Amino acid sequence: MPMLKRWNILLLTLMMMCAGLPALAQTSRSGTVYSPEALQQDLRFLREEIDRIHPDPGLFVSRETLRKAYAAVEAQLQQGMDQDQAWRVFATLNPVFADGHLFVVYPDWQALTRTHLAGGGALFPYEVQVGAGGDITIRTELGKEAPSALAGTRIEQINGVPAARIVRELLARTGGDTAALRANVLSRRMWFAYWKMFGAPEEFDLALAKPTGLVHLKLAASKALPTSVTADGTNQADGFGKTFRFELLPDGAALLTINHFLWPDKQAFYAFTRDAFSKIRAARVKTLIIDVRDNPGGDDDMWKTGVLSYIADKPFRNASSYVKKVIAGRASGSEKVGDVVHGFGDTWVEPDLGNPLHFSGRTYVLVGRMTYSSAVLFSNVVQDFGFGRLVGAGGYARTRQTGGVVPNILLPNTGLQITIPRFVVDRPSGEREPALVRPDIVLPDSPLDRRAIVDALLVHDRKTRAAGADPGAVPGKAAGT
How many domains are contained in the chain? Predict the structure, then answer.
């Protein structure tokens, strides 16, 4: 089976909302208001599309739980709503789906943000780290990459509302496999979710936790363009260097950072990794660290060709088995539209042992808060075939991943977008446990200091070697046999 293309759900190509569909109740200053009938039609459309595309909507949540969630949404669609109000209702399905490839979102949130700011609007002034338990910690000022002077400070209240209550409301509308992953997803764009949930006030009164007690900080909302809008590597002319980086480290080590397995010019990525492994060979590197902590996925061929061709020493495959839904355009003589097909991952890739740049030293793969989709498949392959050891905190994403996301599905009236996967794959070993990505070496990963885990791993590597053990040795598994 051709493996999953365009896994990254955040970079799907978007289309214009269809015209001429059911009637609008009225218009208001907050935007078009949709009638209860139009909203109900959107819900029916959502359910029909999920049934049409998804191979098993009850895979990660019981069908009874899903039925109750649909009923709860339907009960709230009894009055006219604008798009923001509709999102607040429809998005309550997102955590119920419990799948980072299945959720309701705004189409083109980046364009919405630019338009909002260009029109004189403003946003929550900080990038933060949100905890699943409800805490909010400041990381940077909005639009800046350098840590804020308040980095690490916990926000207890926003405009008089307890932070825990705000986080609870936002997480109740955030998608992802687990509560921990949903908190990390929210952390990346809390400013956007806050705007769409609570509005965009011109000023903020933040109650900050200090050793002496709560300290109030009053400041204007930010007019800055968030870095997640400006620094999206696949859309920025200068984004390549932010997305892919290579660095030689002391003591015969190297760090290869890959923040995406999706790039418009794949040959540029392949040239980058070829140059990196040339430098690894020239510098006689013995320890290679591959960082995919911020990698939400992409195309499998990028890590097969760009990474595994240099480190794989035995045949490998992406997955052991799959289940897929046959949709229009994907049918064949033996597979009809609507069929649910079960199969086995029987496409094996031979290692390129003749590659003069083949690396046979110690390999570590850093996994973390945003490792997802094809990046999880990559980490599964590395772990199952013993090509390296996974390092990090773990516990965020499932090893069993959905994929083949069908893009450009807009609800016919509100224009909200739903992404739906059409198949599910099991890791190469075929094992279902552990259900979540579990690193071989567990190390803490600070959201305030990305380099800390790299330094800690290098210390671990040196100490283990000094003790006479090979810290990178991993007994390879005959996955799928």
Answer: 3
